[in-house]
Write a structure and sequence with these properties.
Blueprint lengths: L5 E4 L9 E4 L5 E4 L4 E4 L8 H28 L1
Antiparallel strand pairs: 1-2, 2-3, 3-4
Length: 76
């Protein structure tokens, strides 16, 4: 089975949070409300700066994915 790169996660215990699950390496759960990242696997990075750049890029891509999905829901 091929999974999409991003999935939206919902949980009634956290009604105000917006979770995006990144299914490719590095697998993470991103809370778009506060940009918290929960790593689901160990990440290999040469430096803290490289890791920070990767996290920022993932958050940006997750935000773009979420915005696109919400536009599609609104269009229906």
């Amino acid at each position: 089975m091929i999974l999409p790169k991003f999935l939206i996660g919902d949980n009634t215990d956290f009604p105000d949070d917006i979770f995006i699950i990144h299914t490719e390496y590095p697998q993470v759960v991103i809370n778009l409300v506060n940009d918290e990242v929960e790593w689901l696997e160990e990440v290999q990075a040469d430096s803290d700066a490289e890791l920070a750049n990767e996290v920022n890029e993932l958050i940006e891509l997750a935000s773009q994915f979420y915005d696109r999905e919400m536009e599609r829901y609104d269009a229906e």
